[in-house]
Write a structure and sequence with these properties.
By secondary structure, chain A is mainly alpha-helical. Chain A contains 15 helices and no strands. Chain B is α/β, with parallel strands linked by helices. Chain B has one domain (4-243): 3-Layer(aba) Sandwich (Rossmann fold), CATH 3.40.50.300. Chain B contains nine helices and eleven strands. The chains are: A mainly alpha, B alpha/beta. Chain A binds chain B through residues 79, 208, 211-216, 218-219, 221-226, 264-265, 268-271, 328, and chain B through 47, 50, 52, 66-67, 69-71, 73-77, 79, 81-87, 90-91, 94-95, 97-98, 101, 123, 125, 136, 139, 143.
Chain lengths: 328, 247
């Protein structure tokens, strides 16, 4: 399949899954009625469509795309297929921000306090990482700084849980951290959209640098790439993408890891081509996973992050086994 | 006209200078063999000249903007990295990045030059080490920069590929470009290069035509070897005979 045909097929899949996400839910609204209600916004069906299903479908597509895109960028930059967007600590720090908002009760008083605190957490993480990893653009210092920041954020999150005033508060935090798209509103969409857009614009422009980096850091520099600027783009771009995603959906793992893997061969392995393909693939995967949570256990509120990890981990093992057999 | 001018170039690792006060220039038509024992500072000299390493003194390349430098000089590092399973043609096409990705004909010329047309659609990561080395040389040629700096380009190649690589570089120089290649095979250097630079402990200790540079005294002092030299109809032959003491 040519590259363009692949992108078109993925885009079509995203459209179909977005529609499916709008159509499927416990309210049991028929397809034509659902579409009519979505357009008119009238009655109980209109409320369900516009207030519940539309934000859910939009966030599924947006966040899936963000995770796929940042995963592809991170793997390309680190030249490692095991890299994932959370590697540099932005998702752990965003989660810490959110957890603090839940713990302090700020979020009960003001609903947007949670995503805003998460975004702030991601921002602090980026500042720390850039400070820790020093000047230049080498990958190793970035990974080490990311591990340190992730560990610190994880420890602080555990501390907050440890000090939770009641089991209910702890449970709320734990459930939030599992990641979900349920009960989000269009306000969440509006809050995340600008950050996701900025992150996507930054990351989509890194293709040339990531391509050059295929040949190693020295060769990339000799091809006219500024490693420092490339690293800054990867860190800040993926912080916008991952930070905003975590802020509205919690921690959703494996999408950013598995999607670039799945599509790499199909795009001919070139990092610049993998970026848009992974964005579309990520959107499709997250929409499908979110639909699956509703189909598998409609009344149990199965968490999205749990499902992506449950499906993603065995699938990832399969990929690793296949890679091992090919002896790459 | 010069393609590279170094003035009092010094490169430090920590406090210790690994390249000290080297002044050189490279003119079109020159194929320069950069010689010296391990740790003499060959790689640091090349990377300093490119501006990849921080340096004191002046290099005409390091002063250029990133894109202008990439169009002026191609760099072939010693570590042969190809991170993803891209096709050979796509890897070679990376050499066109400084030209905005334009110039498919330059890619085809480089593939032909390195005898890679039969492999063009293969995944580069599935080739042997020597074949990958040829792919990366083709990538540097596809850049079509007048100056090519290569760090041990013949390491790990079979004898035929070593000679063919030297010929490709010689042809690049003869066509009006220039090549500086660090080499350990003094015989290859003597036969194919137009000029040799010899480095020892960070300093340039000899610079001239191969016959004038590779003297018994220099071999003893810099390389700690005795060697046999002979002129043959195919060119000079050089064979190290023995070391003058151990490490």
């Amino acid at each position: 399949m040519s590259y363009r045909a692949l992108l078109a097929a993925l885009a079509a899949l995203v459209v179909v899954l977005t529609l499916a996400s709008l159509m499927i839910g416990p309210a049991g609204i028929g397809w034509s009625e659902a579409l009519r209600a979505l357009v008119s916004g009238e009655g109980a069906a209109g409320l369900v469509m516009r207030e519940i299903r539309l934000p859910r479908a939009l966030l599924g597509a947006m966040i899936g795309a963000a995770l796929g895109l940042s995963g592809a960028a991170m793997q390309g930059f680190l030249r490692n297929p095991l890299a994932e967007p959370g590697l540099i600590g932005t998702s752990a720090s965003a989660a810490l921000g959110a957890v603090i908002a839940i713990q302090t009760g700020a979020y009960a008083a003001f609903a947007l306090a949670l995503p805003l605190a998460a975004l702030a957490g991601a921002g602090v993480a980026v500042a720390l990482i850039l400070l820790l990893s020093g000047p230049g653009g080498r990958a190793l210092t970035l990974i080490l700084a990311g591990i340190a920041v992730s560990a610190l954020a994880g420890a602080l999150t555990a501390l907050v849980l440890n000090l939770a005033p009641s089991p209910y508060a702890a449970a709320e935090i734990v459930f939030w951290m599992m990641g979900s798209l349920a009960d989000r509103s269009l306000t969440h969409v509006a809050l995340a959209a600008p950050f996701l857009l900025i992150g996507a614009v930054i990351v989509l422009r890194l293709g040339r640098g990531l391509d050059a980096l295929t040949l190693g850091e020295d060769a990339a520099v000799s091809l006219g790439i500024s490693l420092g600027r490339l690293r800054l783009g990867v860190v800040i771009g993926s912080a916008f993408l991952v930070g905003a995603s975590t802020a509205v959906a919690g921690a959703v793992g494996f999408v950013g890891l598995v999607v670039p893997h799945l599509l790499r061969r199909a795009v001919g392995s070139r990092p610049s081509r993998l970026l848009p393909a992974s964005a579309l693939g990520g959107a499709a995967m997250l929409l499908a996973a979110d639909i699956a949570t509703r189909l598998i256990a409609p009344e149990r509120d199965l968490k999205l992050g749990v499902l992506t990890a449950l499906v993603g981990a065995p699938f990832f093992l399969h990929l690793i086994r296949r890679l091992g057999r090919e002896g790459e | 006209m010069t393609l590279l001018q170094l003035q009092a170039l010094t490169v430090r690792r920590g406090q210790c200078p690994v390249v000290e006060d080297v002044s050189l220039s490279v003119a079109p038509g020159e194929f320069i063999g950069l010689l010296g024992p391990n740790g003499a500072g060959k790689t640091s000299l090349l990377r300093g000249a490119l501006g990849i390493l921080p340096h004191e003194g002046r290099s005409s390349l390091a002063g250029l903007g990133a894109d202008a430098r990439a169009r002026a000089a191609a760099w072939l590092p010693q570590s042969r990295e190809i991170a993803w399973g891209m096709s050979v043609r796509e890897v070679v096409a990376l050499g066109r990045l400084p030209h905005g990705g334009q110039g498919a004909d330059a890619v085809e010329r480089a593939l032909a030059r390195m005898g890679l047309h039969a492999y063009a659609a293969r995944r580069a990561t599935q080739l042997s080490g020597g074949e990958q080395a040829r792919v990366l040389i083709a990538r540097a040629l596809a850049q079509e920069a007048p100056l090519v700096l290569a760090d041990e380009p013949t390491a790990g190649l079979d004898p035929a590929a070593q000679i063919a690589t030297m010929r490709v570089f010689a042809a690049h120089a003869a066509a009006g470009g220039a090549v500086v290649a660090s080499l350990h095979d003094l015989g290859l250097a003597a036969r194919h290069c137009t000029r040799l630079w010899v480095m020892h402990r960070g300093r340039l200790v000899a610079d001239g035509a191969p016959g004038a540079v590779l003297t018994a005294d220099l071999l003893a002092e810099v390389f700690h070897i005795r060697a046999h030299f002979a002129q043959t109809p195919e060119g000079p032959v050089f064979q190290p005979l023995n070391t003058l003491g151990d490490f």
